[in-house]
Design brief:
mainly alpha; 12 helices; 2 strands; globular
Length: 314
Protein backbone atom coordinates (compact mmCIF):
# COMPACT_ATOMS: atom_id res chain seq x y z
CA UNK A 1 0.00 0.00 0.00
CA UNK A 2 1.52 3.33 -1.11
CA UNK A 3 2.41 6.14 1.27
CA UNK A 4 -0.20 8.47 -0.21
CA UNK A 5 -2.90 5.87 0.42
CA UNK A 6 -1.80 5.48 4.05
CA UNK A 7 -1.81 9.26 4.48
CA UNK A 8 -5.36 9.43 3.11
CA UNK A 9 -6.44 6.69 5.53
CA UNK A 10 -4.93 8.55 8.51
CA UNK A 11 -6.45 11.87 7.44
CA UNK A 12 -9.86 10.31 6.77
CA UNK A 13 -9.78 8.54 10.14
CA UNK A 14 -9.03 11.84 11.91
CA UNK A 15 -11.83 13.72 10.12
CA UNK A 16 -14.30 10.86 10.65
CA UNK A 17 -13.53 10.54 14.36
CA UNK A 18 -13.91 14.28 14.92
CA UNK A 19 -17.08 14.62 12.82
CA UNK A 20 -18.88 11.57 14.24
CA UNK A 21 -18.15 12.68 17.78
CA UNK A 22 -19.55 16.14 17.03
CA UNK A 23 -22.82 14.55 15.90
CA UNK A 24 -22.98 12.42 19.04
CA UNK A 25 -22.30 15.42 21.27
CA UNK A 26 -25.04 17.43 19.57
CA UNK A 27 -27.43 14.54 20.24
CA UNK A 28 -26.06 14.27 23.82
CA UNK A 29 -25.07 10.65 23.21
CA UNK A 30 -22.20 10.50 25.68
CA UNK A 31 -20.67 7.60 27.58
CA UNK A 32 -22.22 7.50 31.07
CA UNK A 33 -19.81 7.65 34.01
CA UNK A 34 -20.50 4.72 36.36
CA UNK A 35 -18.76 3.24 39.37
CA UNK A 36 -16.35 1.11 37.35
CA UNK A 37 -15.49 3.87 34.85
CA UNK A 38 -11.83 4.85 34.62
CA UNK A 39 -12.66 8.35 33.35
CA UNK A 40 -14.57 11.37 34.61
CA UNK A 41 -14.62 13.44 31.43
CA UNK A 42 -17.17 13.80 28.62
CA UNK A 43 -16.59 10.97 26.16
CA UNK A 44 -18.36 9.22 23.30
CA UNK A 45 -18.28 5.58 22.22
CA UNK A 46 -17.73 6.38 18.55
CA UNK A 47 -14.32 4.87 17.76
CA UNK A 48 -15.85 1.66 16.43
CA UNK A 49 -17.66 3.57 13.70
CA UNK A 50 -14.36 5.04 12.52
CA UNK A 51 -12.73 1.59 12.49
CA UNK A 52 -15.55 0.05 10.45
CA UNK A 53 -15.65 2.92 7.95
CA UNK A 54 -11.85 2.65 7.53
CA UNK A 55 -12.19 -1.10 7.01
CA UNK A 56 -14.92 -0.57 4.44
CA UNK A 57 -12.92 2.20 2.75
CA UNK A 58 -9.82 0.00 2.43
CA UNK A 59 -11.95 -2.77 0.94
CA UNK A 60 -13.55 -0.33 -1.51
CA UNK A 61 -10.11 0.98 -2.49
CA UNK A 62 -8.91 -2.47 -3.53
CA UNK A 63 -12.23 -3.35 -5.15
CA UNK A 64 -12.10 -0.25 -7.40
CA UNK A 65 -8.51 -1.14 -8.31
CA UNK A 66 -9.70 -4.59 -9.37
CA UNK A 67 -7.58 -6.30 -6.71
CA UNK A 68 -8.62 -8.70 -3.94
CA UNK A 69 -5.67 -9.13 -1.54
CA UNK A 70 -8.04 -10.59 1.06
CA UNK A 71 -11.48 -12.19 1.04
CA UNK A 72 -13.94 -9.29 0.86
CA UNK A 73 -16.71 -11.53 2.17
CA UNK A 74 -15.32 -11.14 5.70
CA UNK A 75 -17.13 -7.79 5.72
CA UNK A 76 -20.39 -9.71 6.26
CA UNK A 77 -19.53 -11.22 9.70
CA UNK A 78 -17.56 -8.11 10.64
CA UNK A 79 -20.53 -5.90 9.74
CA UNK A 80 -22.90 -8.01 11.85
CA UNK A 81 -20.62 -7.81 14.89
CA UNK A 82 -20.20 -4.08 14.37
CA UNK A 83 -23.97 -3.54 14.26
CA UNK A 84 -24.68 -5.62 17.38
CA UNK A 85 -21.93 -3.69 19.15
CA UNK A 86 -23.38 -0.39 18.00
CA UNK A 87 -26.81 -1.46 19.24
CA UNK A 88 -25.24 -2.40 22.57
CA UNK A 89 -23.57 1.02 22.83
CA UNK A 90 -26.98 2.66 22.50
CA UNK A 91 -29.33 0.29 24.30
CA UNK A 92 -27.21 -2.02 26.52
CA UNK A 93 -28.12 -5.26 24.73
CA UNK A 94 -28.74 -8.34 26.84
CA UNK A 95 -25.74 -10.69 26.89
CA UNK A 96 -27.98 -13.51 25.63
CA UNK A 97 -28.70 -11.55 22.45
CA UNK A 98 -25.00 -10.83 21.96
CA UNK A 99 -24.17 -14.49 22.51
CA UNK A 100 -26.75 -15.55 19.92
CA UNK A 101 -25.32 -13.12 17.36
CA UNK A 102 -21.80 -14.35 18.11
CA UNK A 103 -22.90 -17.92 17.39
CA UNK A 104 -24.41 -16.81 14.07
CA UNK A 105 -21.25 -14.91 13.09
CA UNK A 106 -19.06 -17.87 14.09
CA UNK A 107 -21.11 -20.12 11.81
CA UNK A 108 -20.73 -17.66 8.93
CA UNK A 109 -16.95 -17.65 9.40
CA UNK A 110 -16.92 -21.45 9.51
CA UNK A 111 -18.82 -21.58 6.21
CA UNK A 112 -16.28 -19.11 4.77
CA UNK A 113 -13.43 -21.47 5.63
CA UNK A 114 -12.21 -19.92 8.88
CA UNK A 115 -12.44 -23.10 10.93
CA UNK A 116 -10.11 -25.09 13.19
CA UNK A 117 -9.74 -28.48 11.48
CA UNK A 118 -6.36 -29.43 12.95
CA UNK A 119 -5.22 -29.41 16.60
CA UNK A 120 -1.56 -29.73 15.48
CA UNK A 121 -0.75 -32.37 18.10
CA UNK A 122 -2.60 -30.78 21.02
CA UNK A 123 -3.99 -33.60 23.23
CA UNK A 124 -2.40 -35.95 20.69
CA UNK A 125 -4.87 -34.81 18.03
CA UNK A 126 -4.20 -33.60 14.51
CA UNK A 127 -6.95 -33.70 11.87
CA UNK A 128 -10.33 -33.74 13.63
CA UNK A 129 -13.93 -34.60 12.60
CA UNK A 130 -16.00 -31.81 11.05
CA UNK A 131 -18.48 -31.68 13.95
CA UNK A 132 -15.62 -31.20 16.44
CA UNK A 133 -13.99 -28.61 14.17
CA UNK A 134 -17.19 -26.55 14.15
CA UNK A 135 -17.70 -26.82 17.92
CA UNK A 136 -14.06 -25.91 18.57
CA UNK A 137 -14.24 -22.90 16.28
CA UNK A 138 -17.49 -21.73 17.86
CA UNK A 139 -16.03 -22.03 21.37
CA UNK A 140 -12.77 -20.26 20.50
CA UNK A 141 -14.64 -17.48 18.70
CA UNK A 142 -16.91 -16.74 21.68
CA UNK A 143 -13.96 -16.84 24.10
CA UNK A 144 -11.66 -14.57 22.07
CA UNK A 145 -14.31 -12.02 21.10
CA UNK A 146 -15.51 -11.62 24.66
CA UNK A 147 -11.96 -11.62 26.02
CA UNK A 148 -11.11 -8.75 23.68
CA UNK A 149 -14.29 -6.92 24.65
CA UNK A 150 -13.46 -7.28 28.35
CA UNK A 151 -10.03 -5.59 28.12
CA UNK A 152 -11.43 -2.39 26.60
CA UNK A 153 -11.34 -0.45 29.87
CA UNK A 154 -8.17 1.66 29.69
CA UNK A 155 -7.21 4.30 27.12
CA UNK A 156 -5.43 2.75 24.17
CA UNK A 157 -5.31 -0.78 25.61
CA UNK A 158 -7.60 -2.54 23.14
CA UNK A 159 -6.07 -0.60 20.23
CA UNK A 160 -2.55 -1.60 21.27
CA UNK A 161 -3.51 -5.22 21.91
CA UNK A 162 -5.01 -5.47 18.42
CA UNK A 163 -1.98 -3.80 16.81
CA UNK A 164 0.39 -6.10 18.74
CA UNK A 165 -1.51 -9.20 17.64
CA UNK A 166 -1.49 -8.38 13.93
CA UNK A 167 2.18 -7.29 14.01
CA UNK A 168 3.20 -10.62 15.58
CA UNK A 169 0.84 -12.41 13.17
CA UNK A 170 2.75 -10.92 10.22
CA UNK A 171 6.21 -11.03 11.84
CA UNK A 172 6.15 -14.76 12.56
CA UNK A 173 4.81 -15.70 9.12
CA UNK A 174 7.31 -16.99 6.59
CA UNK A 175 5.76 -14.61 4.03
CA UNK A 176 3.31 -11.73 3.93
CA UNK A 177 -0.21 -12.95 4.62
CA UNK A 178 -3.24 -12.08 2.44
CA UNK A 179 -4.17 -9.57 5.18
CA UNK A 180 -0.86 -7.70 4.96
CA UNK A 181 -2.17 -4.57 3.24
CA UNK A 182 -5.37 -4.57 5.26
CA UNK A 183 -3.31 -4.74 8.46
CA UNK A 184 -1.15 -1.80 7.49
CA UNK A 185 -4.23 0.23 6.59
CA UNK A 186 -5.94 -0.62 9.87
CA UNK A 187 -2.89 0.26 11.98
CA UNK A 188 -2.58 3.64 10.27
CA UNK A 189 -6.33 4.18 10.59
CA UNK A 190 -6.17 3.46 14.33
CA UNK A 191 -3.38 5.96 15.02
CA UNK A 192 -5.68 9.04 15.18
CA UNK A 193 -7.86 7.18 17.69
CA UNK A 194 -4.95 7.20 20.14
CA UNK A 195 -5.02 10.99 20.14
CA UNK A 196 -8.78 11.13 20.69
CA UNK A 197 -8.55 8.34 23.27
CA UNK A 198 -5.91 10.11 25.34
CA UNK A 199 -6.90 13.75 25.11
CA UNK A 200 -8.18 15.33 28.33
CA UNK A 201 -11.61 16.44 27.11
CA UNK A 202 -14.12 15.03 24.64
CA UNK A 203 -12.46 11.63 24.58
CA UNK A 204 -13.38 8.96 22.04
CA UNK A 205 -13.72 5.31 23.10
CA UNK A 206 -13.98 2.26 20.87
CA UNK A 207 -17.24 1.20 22.45
CA UNK A 208 -18.62 -2.30 22.00
CA UNK A 209 -18.96 -1.62 18.27
CA UNK A 210 -15.19 -1.23 18.06
CA UNK A 211 -14.09 -3.90 20.53
CA UNK A 212 -16.40 -6.57 19.05
CA UNK A 213 -15.30 -5.64 15.54
CA UNK A 214 -11.58 -5.83 16.38
CA UNK A 215 -12.14 -9.00 18.41
CA UNK A 216 -13.77 -10.65 15.40
CA UNK A 217 -10.85 -9.60 13.20
CA UNK A 218 -8.48 -11.15 15.75
CA UNK A 219 -10.43 -14.41 15.52
CA UNK A 220 -10.14 -14.40 11.74
CA UNK A 221 -6.35 -14.01 12.04
CA UNK A 222 -6.10 -16.77 14.65
CA UNK A 223 -8.20 -19.18 12.58
CA UNK A 224 -6.11 -18.40 9.52
CA UNK A 225 -2.88 -18.96 11.51
CA UNK A 226 -4.14 -22.42 12.51
CA UNK A 227 -4.80 -23.32 8.88
CA UNK A 228 -2.52 -24.89 6.30
CA UNK A 229 -1.96 -21.65 4.35
CA UNK A 230 -0.10 -20.01 7.26
CA UNK A 231 3.52 -21.14 7.72
CA UNK A 232 5.54 -20.14 10.77
CA UNK A 233 9.05 -18.84 10.26
CA UNK A 234 11.54 -21.73 10.47
CA UNK A 235 13.40 -19.95 13.29
CA UNK A 236 10.33 -20.47 15.50
CA UNK A 237 9.37 -24.13 15.32
CA UNK A 238 6.30 -23.72 17.49
CA UNK A 239 3.15 -25.70 17.81
CA UNK A 240 0.54 -23.57 16.05
CA UNK A 241 -1.94 -23.84 18.92
CA UNK A 242 0.70 -22.53 21.36
CA UNK A 243 1.47 -19.75 18.88
CA UNK A 244 -2.14 -18.58 18.58
CA UNK A 245 -2.65 -18.69 22.36
CA UNK A 246 0.47 -16.56 22.72
CA UNK A 247 -0.88 -14.00 20.26
CA UNK A 248 -3.94 -13.42 22.46
CA UNK A 249 -2.31 -14.23 25.81
CA UNK A 250 -3.38 -11.14 27.76
CA UNK A 251 -7.10 -11.15 26.82
CA UNK A 252 -7.31 -14.91 27.44
CA UNK A 253 -5.57 -14.78 30.83
CA UNK A 254 -7.69 -11.82 31.92
CA UNK A 255 -10.93 -13.50 30.82
CA UNK A 256 -10.10 -16.74 32.63
CA UNK A 257 -9.14 -14.86 35.77
CA UNK A 258 -12.29 -12.71 36.01
CA UNK A 259 -14.55 -15.66 35.18
CA UNK A 260 -13.05 -17.67 38.04
CA UNK A 261 -13.40 -14.74 40.46
CA UNK A 262 -17.01 -14.06 39.47
CA UNK A 263 -18.06 -17.70 39.69
CA UNK A 264 -16.44 -18.00 43.12
CA UNK A 265 -18.50 -15.04 44.27
CA UNK A 266 -21.66 -16.59 42.87
CA UNK A 267 -22.03 -13.80 40.30
CA UNK A 268 -22.73 -14.12 36.59
CA UNK A 269 -19.43 -14.37 34.67
CA UNK A 270 -20.91 -12.06 32.01
CA UNK A 271 -21.68 -9.12 34.32
CA UNK A 272 -19.03 -6.33 34.23
CA UNK A 273 -16.91 -5.39 37.23
CA UNK A 274 -13.61 -3.71 38.11
CA UNK A 275 -11.51 -6.81 38.75
CA UNK A 276 -9.68 -6.93 35.44
CA UNK A 277 -5.89 -6.91 35.43
CA UNK A 278 -5.78 -3.41 33.94
CA UNK A 279 -8.12 -2.13 36.69
CA UNK A 280 -5.83 -3.50 39.40
CA UNK A 281 -2.73 -1.96 37.81
CA UNK A 282 -4.54 1.36 37.25
CA UNK A 283 -5.37 1.57 40.95
CA UNK A 284 -1.63 1.61 41.62
CA UNK A 285 -0.44 3.79 38.75
CA UNK A 286 -3.42 6.16 38.44
CA UNK A 287 -2.29 6.59 34.84
CA UNK A 288 -3.79 5.12 31.68
CA UNK A 289 -0.50 5.32 29.80
CA UNK A 290 1.54 3.69 32.58
CA UNK A 291 -1.07 0.95 32.91
CA UNK A 292 -0.98 0.35 29.15
CA UNK A 293 2.83 0.11 29.16
CA UNK A 294 2.93 -2.24 32.16
CA UNK A 295 0.32 -4.59 30.72
CA UNK A 296 1.84 -4.69 27.25
CA UNK A 297 5.44 -5.08 28.40
CA UNK A 298 4.48 -7.78 30.89
CA UNK A 299 2.47 -9.89 28.44
CA UNK A 300 4.64 -9.27 25.38
CA UNK A 301 7.65 -10.43 27.39
CA UNK A 302 5.69 -13.44 28.65
CA UNK A 303 4.59 -14.35 25.12
CA UNK A 304 8.10 -14.13 23.68
CA UNK A 305 9.53 -16.14 26.59
CA UNK A 306 6.92 -18.86 26.04
CA UNK A 307 7.75 -18.91 22.32
CA UNK A 308 11.49 -19.08 23.03
CA UNK A 309 11.37 -21.94 25.53
CA UNK A 310 8.81 -23.98 23.60
CA UNK A 311 10.06 -23.36 20.07
CA UNK A 312 11.75 -26.77 19.84
CA UNK A 313 9.21 -28.69 21.92
CA UNK A 314 7.23 -29.87 18.90
Amino acid sequence: MQGIALFIIALSSSILTYSIQKIYLLKNKIDPIVGRSSHNEIATRTGGITVFVCLFGITLFFYLKGEEPFDFSILIPLGIMFLIGLYDDFYQADYKLKLLMQIIVAKILIDQGFVIVNYHGLFGLHQIPWWLAQLSTLFVFIVVVNAFNFIDGIDGLALTEFAKLIILFELFSVQATPFYYLNWGLIVGLIPLYYFNYRKTHKVFLGDAGSLLLGTLCCIYLFYALGSDYTLNSNWQLNKVVFTIGLALYPLVDLLRVFILRIRKGASPFLPDSNHIHHLIFKRTQSHLKTLLVVQLLFLTSTLCIFYFLRLAY
